[in-house]
Specification:
alpha+beta; 17-stranded mixed β-sheet
Length: 260
């Protein structure tokens, strides 16, 4: 009996040692495994991506040199993405995201459609009937840029964001005074600003845009201004808004007017 107990003790010790080596191996391989999981998830969305997973632990993760889309002309690049999460028992919840120097490439087509390239392939998992809801996370965007290829040229949008959604979140996207000359498509002294704010259970978006002159195909607009305000709860169950615009002169094949 004593020899049998020793035999079982050695087996248990060997099993514990093997399990310890396995756990240590998984911990040492957590970065390659994490990269594989992220790449598989993006590949399942039909997105080609490149990145380096530089941190992964029980408190968060970090990706560097992120690129989504064609490697030569990517639709999205990000210098650094840092995430933090918190544990509730055995479940984990995303708590904060920091995005450094993101640059997204958009295309504004002559038809008026705004295209995000391969990013439009991204979708939520199928089979979920839950209503989408804005998460109450802390979101920081530093030195963000959107490059919009429009028929008259390239528009550059500068983006910044800070705070926690549902508490003190604020974001700003701005197009500085821009002039893009052209014959069929042109913009003179155009500018725009979008401000997002979230307090309590709502998210609001306010847009202000103006141009001294805009040529879009056969339409000619003189000095014009646009103001819009949209407010929605975080569960996006309803949306209310108001819009006002003023155009000093409008010329088109089927219409002409002043001070609209």
């Amino acid at each position: 009996p004593r020899r049998r107990r020793w035999r079982w003790a050695r087996r248990i010790s060997l099993a514990v040692a093997t399990l310890a080596v396995f756990v240590v191996g998984l911990w040492l391989l957590r970065l390659p495994i994490g990269e594989f999981v992220v790449r598989s998830s993006l590949s399942g969305q039909g997105l080609q991506s490149q990145f380096r997973l530089i941190q992964l632990d029980f408190g968060g993760a970090a990706l560097a040199a992120v690129s989504v889309g064609d490697p030569v002309t990517p639709d999205l690049t990000v210098s650094l993405i840092e995430t933090r999460w918190r544990w509730r028992g055995l479940s984990v919840e995303l708590d904060a995201v920091r995005i450094v120097e993101p640059e997204v490439h958009l295309t504004f087509q002559p038809t008026g459609r705004l295209s995000a390239g391969v990013l439009e392939r991204f979708r939520e998992g199928e089979g979920s009937g839950d209503r989408p809801r804005l998460p109450r996370i802390a979101l920081t965007i530093e030195n963000g840029t959107a490059r919009i290829d429009a028929p008259m040229g390239v528009l550059t949008v500068n983006v910044e964001a800070t705070g926690r959604i549902g508490q003190d979140f604020a974001a700003r996207a701005q197009i500085s005074d821009t002039t893009l000359p052209g014959q069929d498509y042109a913009l003179e002294a155009g500018a725009a600003e979008l401000i997002l704010a979230s307090r309590g259970e709502t998210m609001s978006a306010q847009l202000n845009a103006s141009a001294r002159r805009l040529v879009w195909g056969e339409a000619r607009l003189g000095p014009s201004e646009l103001e819009a305000l949209v407010v929605a709860p975080l569960d996006l169950s309803r949306v209310r808004g108001e819009t006002s615009w003023r155009v000093a002169a409008l010329e088109a094949p089927s219409f002409g007017g002043r001070t609209i």
